[in-house]
Amino acid sequence: MNQKILTTLIVFLLAITPATADMFGGQFAGGQGIGSGQIAGGQGIGSGQLAGGQGIGAGQLAGGFGIGGQLASGQGIGSGMTGQMPSSNFVTQNSIQNTNTFTTQNLNNNLLNNFETRTDTPRTTTQTLQQITTTGTTLPRITSSPVTTARVNFRYHYQIIATQPNNQPLAYLILNGPNGMSVTNTGRVSWTPNQTGQYNIQIGVKTQGTNLVTPQSYTITVTENQAPEITSQPTLTAIVGQEYVYQITATDADGDRTGSLPVQSPQGTNFNIQTQTLTWTPTANQVGQHTFKILVGDSFTTTEQQFTVTVRSSSSNNNGSNGGADGGSDNTNRAPVITSTPITNAAAGTRYTYDVEATDADNNLLTYALLSYPQSMRINFQTGVITWIPTTAQAGNNNVRVVVSDGRTSTTQDFIINVAANALPQFVSSPINNAIVNQPYTYNVDAIDPNNDNIVYALPTKPTGMTINPLTGIITWIPTSTGFFNVTVSATDGGQPVLQLFTIHVQSQNTINNHPPVITSTPIRTATAGTQYLYVVLADDADGDTKTFNVNGPSGMTINSLGVISWTPNNTQTGNHPVSVSVTDGTDTASQTYTLTVQTQSQGSASWQTIPTVTINQGATSGTIILSNVLDRCTDPANPFVNVQILSNTADLQFTIDSRNDLKLIYIHPNVVGTRQVRLACNGVATSFNLNIQATNNQNNNGNNNGNTGSNSNSEITVNSIIIPNAYDISPGSRIPITVSVRKTTGPRIEDVQITATIQTLGARATSSVFDIEGSTSVRRTVFLQIPGSADPGIYTVRISIDGRNGVHEQLHRQITIR
User: Distance between terminal CA atoms of the chain?
Assistant: First the structure.
């Protein structure tokens, strides 16, 4: 209890320091005041900026403003900058991340431009900055001196004070700093260090709506705090009618300023905060023993001194008749009463304020303190205003006990503050995936923050020459060559950044009549550490163009020419990973972005029954059951929930597990025969079995009366694409369009072609009108398949047949999901 009381009450005592003191992370101006507070022309304690006077800090800039240390007569002395620093040297930025250091070159009345992150390695980035002319440029001016010391596990604060000649609004940035350091939109820098050492910091101030940044560099030395030591010793006797005097003195091994406050004393005691002197003239009815309790603090921790003073009458032989503590009149004192109701909700990263109100029937002067409280919470000892900016780590319930004292008795109030966790930003814009060489590319990245925090944008991965405005999120670029370029955009509200990954396809020119490819498959969103992850990306192209696949994801993830994504995460890669896959037809690009969650590898508690070899005909159709109720073949005594994954899907042989837990065939290429190994995983434990695929003499008779599943059974016709919009989100009773693009491969004109779409299990069927195919022209037809309103949710196979005169026949299958 004592140390927490002292940590807060010491704020009161620090007001004894001169007007130039900088206590509790704040500055003093125009008079005496305390710490990180609002001070206006005299004494005051609060939590804001200076007003009514100039703050005196660790140093003043003279003759110019630049980066790091003091500047005199235009000479720059600095952490992170070298060379001469004339008064017009400042930094502009196009892309800012909290992990940058930099070196200037040839600075003569020039601004620094294109301050960008060029590597994924935190806090080790180096970039040479180019020069631009500064004629007529108006920049902010930082007038505050940074706070350069901090203590482990105590909140660090530095209020940036800056001016703009045109009085335009300012924005504040952390250009380089440790994890967890943040700055508010009013310029208040906050951080809680967790280990000792020296930390190079660079903050920046810019005029809103511009890219011109004024930097300030400094070093924070973080040490373990040592509590102050009280060096004075009180006199333990007093005489009635004679003044008792005790001047409190203390030292601090860290060199911190100290202050003291009596928290328990008899009636009539006075305390001069300027001289740190306690005085008291005991009365006749105060003969006896009286307890004093003194707190001395250095703004981080406190030390307590408690002693008892014995009051004697003016006659040395009279030790007092009543001997009671505080005497008769003290017994009439009444305790203060807290009348306010606490505020019990807060949000991480948002300022919390509660004004504790209390009354005292004896009209005694009241003081306020915190007995128990979360880290970085503060209270104004005179006004009772509690302020706090909770961190993400403080989400949940936080216990608080506040005490109000009239110098002799006290009252407490207990309450719990529930802190809502910080919500990360969310991207609401979709990337632009196509660009034309030597023409400007622009993408306005847009993200929202549920807590309304300021969002800063950056480009951890980007092609040469691409820039982003850190405040507006506008990406600009002029590509100089064709090809595919991976881009990663980060958005942060001061906490963990969120990422958006995409690929830009740069072409030599646009093909106006080109139909872009369409990705029709749904991504597999979970993987297990130590187990191979496979996802077959299915895409259609209405023009029959050759498709090229690309993936942008975690380290080690690959995609082959058939669109099969493969990756085996290790145990250090558990968690969420953004993945972006794209497919291009050489002109246009389609992309699909999703989050892949990697689960911890199973400890091996699951087990499989032996699965014998399964035999099917090569002409088996989509929907053929390979294993019934596959979940029955796996047990896990440590986990009642059994999750089975398919590990061996390939482009020519694909399976799924339906709503009835049956392992079913989705697609089999007509050339697939022989023995294939099917791999499954149950709660991370893998097994496999052999699938024997027998060739048949007549592919039109497969034993299931479902027709031929192969494609290109007649080489005269080729299916370019089959497009079913929203195929994995179909509602019962809906009428779904199925667009088929076909062309003639060889031979003469094909007449009387008709397309039929069927879902046998639902009794749904639709046919197109009859048409002819000639030459090399592709023909597209759309049929509308009516889904019954009584259809149950699940995965269904759509059989698509293309039939023409003279035995022309083609059959393919696609899946839809009814939800």
Answer: 59
Class of residue 233 by CB neighbours under 10 A (exposed 0-12, middle 13-18, buried 19+):
exposed
d(CA 674, CA 758): 29
SS3 625: strand
Distances (CA, A) of 436 to 95, 467, 514: 23, 17, 15
Q: Which amino acid is at 498?
A: V
pLDDT score of 36 more than 60: no
| Mean predicted lDDT score pLDDT of the chain | 75
* Percentage of residues of the chain with pLDDT beyond 70: 75
Domains and CATH numbers, the chain: 2-45+226-332 (2.60.40.10), 57-223 (2.60.40.10), 337-420 (2.60.40.10), 423-510 (2.60.40.10), 607-694 (2.60.40.60), 717-818 (2.60.40.10)
Cβ(636)–Cβ(606) below 8 Å: yes
Q: CA 304 to CA 563: how far, in whole Å?
A: 71
Would you say 297 and 5 are in contact if contact means Cβ atoms under 8 Å apart? no
Tokens in use for 485? Answer: 């370029």
What single string gives the DSSP state of each residue in 675-733? EEEEEEEETTEEEEEEEEEE--S-TT--SSSS----S-SSTTEEEEEEE-TTTTSBPTT
Query: Tokens 């005051």, residue?
Result: 44
Asked if 624 and 703 count as a contact pair (C-beta separation under 8 A), the reply is no
Please write the tens of the pLDDT for every residue from 396-441. Answer: 899 999 988 876 778 889 999 998 877 788 898 989 988 988 899 9
Residues in Cβ contact with 209 at an 8 Å cutoff, skipping those fewer than 6 apart:
168
Cα angle at 424 between 421 and 427, to 5 degrees? 155
Strands (E), 555-624: 558-559, 564-567, 575-584, 589-599, 607-608, 614-617
Residue type, 143: T
Give the pLDDT mean for 710-729: 66
Query: Look-up: residue for tokens 């007093």?
Result: 238
pTM of the predicted model over 0.70: no
| Single-letter code of the amino acid located at 23 | M
E strand residue ranges, 107-196: 110-113, 130-133, 141-142, 149-151, 156-159, 162-163, 170-176, 182-183, 188-191
In the three-class reduction of DSSP (H, G, I as helix; E, B as strand; rest coil), residue 495 is classed as: coil
Both tokens of 19, joined, read 């007007």
Cα–Cα separations (whole angstroms), residue 631 to 642, 643, 681, 757 = 7, 8, 11, 32
Burial grade of 492 (CB within 10 A; 0-12, 13-18, 19 or more): buried
CA distance 148 to 219: 6
